[in-house]
Design goal:
Number of helices: 7
CATH topology: Rossmann fold
CATH architecture: 3-Layer(aba) Sandwich
Oligomer: single chain
Strand content: 15-25%
CATH class: Alpha Beta
Shape: globular
Order of helices and strands: HHEEHEEHEHHEHEEE
Number of strands: 9
Low-confidence stretches: 249-253
Number of domains: 1
Length: about 250
């Protein structure tokens, strides 16, 4: 089942999200998601592990049909209160999505893999229900802040005590084991200690810096292109000489 946020977790998350000093971090992460996912108008999008709905806000004015799924009733209550009927909310788990194959154009998992019980199964399910692109937003295991959170959990109770941190390379390996050699791209943000100076903000928005693999928040996008395996099929055709046949091969699905 993984870790499901309870009432106290939800309250702590809302306090962090509403803290004005964290707004720039939220902006960087959401902008990276939009830049990499590139959703088209009139499309459909599923947010797996939508939480309180903060990762759905960037899509609200893009003429996209939005669906959110989360196992926590406390998170879904807040999300419903914020977004109302603009999003279709479901309670469920990432490893067992209640949707048909290829049901959505896009899917995002925004700091969700860290808390699921079976990350590979959750990724398989995301690939199953998605036709176009999937965005994975993860807390980078090899970022300085990611390492700090992992060490901090050893000495102090924290929500991240229940989290599994991933690296870009580990996530790519899982994706390729499921989908084969499909298009995968990645970028990171939050490279520097967060400050309020305009110079820090300008550096963090640099497209060059996003290619460094050690930012606190990493975005990975995969396009689950279908693959077809071929095998030779034997065919028989008539020979010009009476009574003889010629054998040949043709590629088949």
């Amino acid at each position: 089942m993984g870790y499901v946020f309870d009432f106290n977790d939800t309250k702590a998350y809302e306090q962090w999200y509403n803290n004005i000093s964290n707004r720039f971090v939220v902006e960087l992460e959401n902008r990276l998601m939009l830049e990499m996912l590139k959703p088209m108008p009139k499309s459909t999008l599923l947010d797996i592990g939508c939480g309180a709905g903060s990762s759905l806000f960037p899509f609200l004015d893009m003429d996209i049909q939005l669906t959110g799924l989360d196992p926590s009733p406390y998170m879904l209550d807040i999300a419903s209160e914020k977004l109302g009927n603009r999003v279709d909310f479901h309670r469920g788990f990432a490893e067992d999505l209640p949707f048909d194959d290829n049901f959505f154009d896009y899917t995002c998992m925004f700091i969700t893999l860290e808390f699921v019980e079976n990350p590979k199964k959750a990724i398989e399910e995301a690939c199953r229900v998605t036709k176009d692109r999937i965005f994975f937003g993860i807390l980078n295991r090899y970022a300085a802040w990611g390492m700090y959170l992992q060490i901090k959990c050893m000495f102090k109770d924290s929500i991240y005590k229940h989290a599994r941190f991933f690296s870009i390379w580990e996530l790519k390996h899982i994706l390729k084991s499921i989908l084969g050699d499909v298009p995968i791209s990645w970028r990171t943000v939050c490279q520097l200690p967060m400050g309020s100076g305009e110079s820090v903000h300008k550096i963090e928005r640099s497209s060059l810096l996003k290619r460094f693999p050690f930012g606190t928040f990493a975005g990975v996008v995969v396009t689950p292109v279908p693959h077809f395996r071929t095998r030779p099929l034997s065919i028989t055709c008539k020979s010009k000489q009476p009574g003889k046949a010629t054998a040949g091969y043709a590629a088949g699905p």
